[in-house]
C-alpha cells in the first residue's frame, strides 16, 4: 500500500507558506538560491540562518523533516568541504608538510574558511529547496511551472503539453508505486527472492515484477488516453483552469520579506565589506 | 487443531507521520484445520493488511501470529510459512509474466527448488484442477488468454505450490456472473481435493454465507463479529450499518417477518430459506 511510502516530500498541513502562490514560491526560492551564492561574511550566514528559521516556523513543518533532506546530501557536503580544506593553498598557513617535491600538503586559514562557508552554503541551499517541496503539492508546483513558462509560448514552446505530461507523470507515481508493491508481494508469496544472489541474478529476479508493471502501465496509458478522448480533450485550444492561481496579500508579504533578506545580503557584501569584522572584532 | 492463531494483532501505517493510520487494532482469532474461513469488512477495514500478515508480507508490529505452529516473528520460519500459505491476491492475473502458461505456473514450485519431474507433475495437476486442459494451454502465452482464463492460470500458479492454507482475496471480483459462479465452484473443489483450509475475503455476503464455516467481520481494524454465518447475519441492523449488508435470503426473511411471518431460525442461504418456508407452509396446511 502506498500509504506506507510518503509521496514526494510534501508535509500536509495548512500554514502561511503552504498557502502561498506556487509561482511566488518558485521565484522566491530561485532568488534565495542566487542570494546564497553572494554571501561572503559569517554575519550574513547568521542572518540567513535566522531567515530560514523564521520561514520554517511560518511553514509549520517540523524541523526534523527539513533536516532529513539535509541528511541526504551530507556525504556530498563533507566531500566538498574536505577537498576545499586540502586544496586551497592561499592565505596564512596553519600546517605544512612537504610530501614530494611537486606537492606540499598545506592547510591554510583560507581553506578552513572556504570549507566552512561552502558547507553552510550547501546546507542552506538544500534547506531552502526542501521548504518549497515540503509545503507545495506536486500538482500545485506543476501549475506554477506552467504559469511561469507561459511566455515561452511565443517561441512555440508547447508549455501546456509539457505541463500535462508532468501532471500525468506525477499523478501516476503513487498508482504505479502501489502496483509495484502489490506485484512484489504477489511474487514474494510465490517464493520469489529479491535480495539474494549477485547483480545479474538480482536483476533477473526483478523481471517478475517489471513485466507485469509494464503491462499495466501500458494498459493504464491506453485507458487514460481513451478517457481523455471521450471528454474531447484537446491541448491546442484555449483551456481554462480548475484551480486558478491567484496572488494575495500573503504573496506580497512573502515577497517583501525575501526581497528584504536578499537586499541585506547584497548590501553586506558590496557596501560594508566585512561587517562581521565590526561586529565580532578579532574573531575572523 | 488451529492452523492459524492470531493474538492481539495491531498494525499502524506510516507511524509518527501525518499519514499515520491504524489499520488493525487488537485483532485475535484462530482458524481450524479444514475450515472455510470468511473475512468481510468495508473498504479500508484492514482485511488486506490482516491477510498479508499471514505469510509475512507485512512485518508484524505488535501481537502474535502462529501459522502451523510456527511464529511469524522468527526469520528462519519465513520460507516455510510462505510456502505453506498460498496467497491469491485481488486481480491475480496482473502478476502473470512468463511467456508461456506452463512457465508461469512453474514459477512458484521452481522457487521451492523442487526437481524437474515434480515441477512438471504439479504444473499439470494444477492446470487440470483449475479446469484448463494442459495440452491446450501449456504452451500459450498467458497474455492472450481471456480474463477468466488468466485468473485460473494465476490460481494454478499458487495451487502448484501445494499450500496447506489457501488465502483468496476477492477472487471473484470483476468477473461476469458465470465466471464468478465457476470460480467459486473451483474454490470449493480445491478445498475438497487439494487444500482443506481456505480463507476467503469477499464483499459478496451471499458467497460468504454459502461457503464459509465461520466469518470474521472487521470494522475499522477491529473485530466486530466472529462466528458462523447464522450467528453473524442475525445482527441484521449492525451489518447494514457497517455497509456490508446481509445475504439476499436473510433480507427476504426480514421483509417477510415485517409482513407478520415468524421464522424459527435465521436463514442465510436460499436453501435454508426454502426449507423454512416449506416447513411453515406445511404447518399452516396442518392447521387449516
Short structural description:
The complex is a heterodimer of chains A (284) and B (288). Chain A is mainly alpha-helical.
Structure description:
The complex is a heterodimer of chains A (284) and B (288). Helices cover 65% and strands 4% of the residues of chain A. In chain A, a hairpin with a 5-residue loop joins strand 1 and strand 2 (104-108). The termini of chain A are far apart. In chain A, helix 2 runs parallel beside helix 5 (109-135). By secondary structure, chain A is mainly α. Chain A has a two-stranded antiparallel ribbon with strand order 1-2. Chain A folds into two domains: 11-158 and 245-279, no CATH class; 162-234, no CATH class. The model of chain A is unreliable at 1-7 (pLDDT under 50). Chain B is α/β, with parallel strands linked by helices and 288 residues long. Chain B has two domains: 2-246, Rossmann fold (3-Layer(aba) Sandwich), CATH 3.40.50.300; 247-288, no CATH class. Helices cover 42% and strands 22% of the residues of chain B. Chain B has helices at 47-54, 78-84, 101-111, 116-129, 134-137, 147-159, 177-193, 205-211, 229-233, 236-241, 248-258, 270-287, and strands spanning 2-13, 21-32, 36-41, 62-67, 70-71, 85-88, 165-169, 197-201, 214-219, 222-227. In chain B, the strands form two sheets. Chain B has a six-stranded mixed sheet with strand order 6-7-8-3-9-10, with helices on both faces. In chain B, strands 2-1-4-5 form a four-stranded antiparallel sheet, covered by helices on one side. In chain B, a hairpin with a 2-residue loop joins strand 9 and strand 10 (222-227). In chain B, 42% of the residues are buried. Chains A and B meet through helix 7 and helix 9 of A and helix 1, helix 2, strand 6 and helix 3 of B.
Amino acid at each position: 500500500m502506498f500509504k506506507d511510502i510518503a509521496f514526494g516530500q510534501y508535509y500536509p498541513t495548512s500554514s502561511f507558506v503552504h498557502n502561498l502562490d506556487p509561482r511566488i514560491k518558485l521565484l522566491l526560492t530561485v532568488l534565495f538560491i542566487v542570494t546564497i551564492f553572494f554571501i561572503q561574511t559569517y554575519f550574513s550566514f547568521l542572518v540567513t540562518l535566522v531567515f530560514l528559521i523564521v520561514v520554517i516556523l511560518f511553514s509549520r513543518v517540523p524541523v526534523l523533516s527539513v533536516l532529513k533532506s539535509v541528511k541526504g546530501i551530507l556525504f556530498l557536503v563533507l566531500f566538498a568541504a574536505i577537498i576545499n580544506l586540502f586544496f586551497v593553498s592561499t592565505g596564512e598557513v596553519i600546517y605544512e608538510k612537504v610530501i614530494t617535491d611537486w606537492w606540499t600538503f598545506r592547510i591554510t586559514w583560507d581553506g578552513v574558511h572556504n570549507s566552512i562557508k561552502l558547507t553552510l552554503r550547501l546546507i542552506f541551499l538544500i534547506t531552502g529547496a526542501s521548504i518549497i517541496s515540503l509545503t507545495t503539492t506536486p500538482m500545485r508546483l506543476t501549475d506554477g511551472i506552467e504559469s511561469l513558462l507561459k511566455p515561452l509560448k511565443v517561441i512555440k514552446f508547447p508549455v501546456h503539453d509539457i505541463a500535462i505530461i508532468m501532471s500525468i507523470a506525477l499523478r501516476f507515481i503513487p498508482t504505479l508505486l502501489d502496483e509495484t508493491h502489490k506485484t512484489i508481494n504477489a511474487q514474494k508469496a510465490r517464493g520469489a527472492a529479491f535480495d539474494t544472489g549477485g547483480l545479474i541474478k538480482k536483476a533477473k529476479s526483478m523481471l517478475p515484477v517489471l513485466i507485469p508493471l509494464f503491462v499495466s502501465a501500458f494498459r493504464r496509458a491506453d485507458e487514460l488516453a481513451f478517457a481523455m478522448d471521450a471528454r474531447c480533450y484537446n491541448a491546442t485550444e484555449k483551456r481554462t483552469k480548475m484551480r486558478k492561481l491567484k496572488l494575495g496579500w500573503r504573496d506580497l508579504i512573502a515577497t517583501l520579506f525575501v526581497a528584504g533578506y536578499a537586499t541585506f545580503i547584497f548590501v553586506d557584501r558590496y557596501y560594508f565589506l566585512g561587517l562581521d569584522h565590526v561586529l565580532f572584532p578579532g574573531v575572523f | 487443531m488451529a492452523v492459524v492463531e492470531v493474538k492481539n494483532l495491531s498494525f499502524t501505517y506510516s507511524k509518527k507521520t501525518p499519514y499515520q493510520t491504524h489499520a488493525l487494532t487488537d485483532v485475535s482469532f484462530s482458524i481450524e484445520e479444514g475450515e472455510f474461513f470468511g473475512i468481510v469488512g468495508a473498504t479500508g477495514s484492514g482485511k488486506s493488511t490482516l491477510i498479508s500478515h499471514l505469510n509475512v508480507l507485512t512485518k508484524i508490529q505488535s501481537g502474535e501470529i502462529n501459522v502451523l505452529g510456527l511464529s511469524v516473528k522468527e526469520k528462519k520460519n519465513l520460507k516455510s510459512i510462505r510456502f505453506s500459505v498460498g496467497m491469491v491476491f485481488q486481480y491475480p492475473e496482473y502478476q502473470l509474466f512468463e511467456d508461456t502458461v506452463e512457465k508461469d505456473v512453474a514459477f512458484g514450485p521452481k522457487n521451492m527448488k523442487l526437481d524437474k519431474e515434480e515441477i512438471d507433475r504439479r504444473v499439470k495437476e494444477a492446470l487440470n484442477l483449475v479446469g484448463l486442459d494442459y495440452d491446450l494451454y501449456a504452451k500459450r502465452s498467458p497474455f492472450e488468454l481471456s480474463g477468466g482464463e488468466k485468473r485460473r492460470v494465476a490460481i494454478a500458479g499458487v495451487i502448484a505450490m501445494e499450500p496447506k492454507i489457501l488465502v483468496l482475496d476477492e477472487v471473484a471480483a470483476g468477473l461476469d456472473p458465470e465466471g464468478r459462479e465457476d470460480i467459486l465452484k473451483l474454490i470449493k473443489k480445491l478445498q475438497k481435493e487439494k487444500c482443506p483450509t481456505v480463507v476467503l475475503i469477499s464483499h459478496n455476503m451471499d458467497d460468504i454465507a454459502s461457503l464459509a464455516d465461520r466469518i470474521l467481520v472487521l470494522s475499522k481494524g477491529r473485530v466486530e463479529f466472529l462466528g458462523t454465518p447464522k450467528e453473524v447475519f442475525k445482527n441484521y441492523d449492525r451489518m447494514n450499518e457497517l455497509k456490508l449488508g446481509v445475504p439476499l435470503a436473510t433480507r427476504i426473511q426480514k421483509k417477510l417477518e415485517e409482513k407478520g411471518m415468524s421464522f424459527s431460525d435465521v436463514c442465510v442461504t436460499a436453501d435454508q430459506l426454502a426449507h423454512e418456508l416449506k416447513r411453515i407452509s406445511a404447518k399452516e396446511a396442518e392447521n387449516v
